[in-house]
Amino acid sequence: MKHAILVIDDNPDHLELTMMALGECCDPAEIATASDGVEALDYLFGRGAHAGRDTSLQPRLVILDMKLVRMHGLDVLKALRSDPRTATIPVVMHSSSTEKGDIAACYANGANSYVRKATDYDELRRKMRQVHDFWLTVNERYKPA
Q1: Tens of each residue's pLDDT in the chain, 145 residues
Q2: In a domain, 17, yes or no
Q3: pTM, whole model, 2 decimals?
Q4: Domain count, the chain
Q5: Structural domain includes residue 59
Q6: With contact defined as beta carbons under 8 Å apart, do 64 and 8 qualify?
Q7: Is 93 within the bounds of a domain?
Q8: β-sheet bridge partners, residue 32
Q9: Domain containing 14: what range?
């Protein structure tokens, strides 16, 4: 199964709500999830529980929580950008932080977008629809040869 979106969030409630919101704009079967950065990197790089996964089939979009407990989102982002298999996947940082330093660090480390977490479900639905529509239908993806 090829997943179009990988959502990474260590808060089960946030993860479930994000999945529900995205499920309104795309087939939920096209969405993979990871509950922390280590699990996400295992999925993307085909190791650990995901050993043997075809890593030539990468998601078209990663939605990454910044403040993960087990491995910080910025470290996940750095790992994605340093590997040729994942270097060009669009990464949308999804965080509740309003700190300019956090936002700057995300962009400095290769994030394509920074979306503040919504305060209610209607706002989350609207934001996830916009993220989905832009990155999966409007944006032209670069895929190295």
Answers
A1: 578 999 999 999 999 999 999 999 999 999 999 999 999 999 999 999 999 999 989 999 999 999 998 899 999 999 999 999 999 999 999 999 999 999 999 999 999 999 999 999 999 999 999 999 999 999 988 776 6
A2: yes
A3: 0.94
A4: 1
A5: yes
A6: yes
A7: yes
A8: 6
A9: 5-138
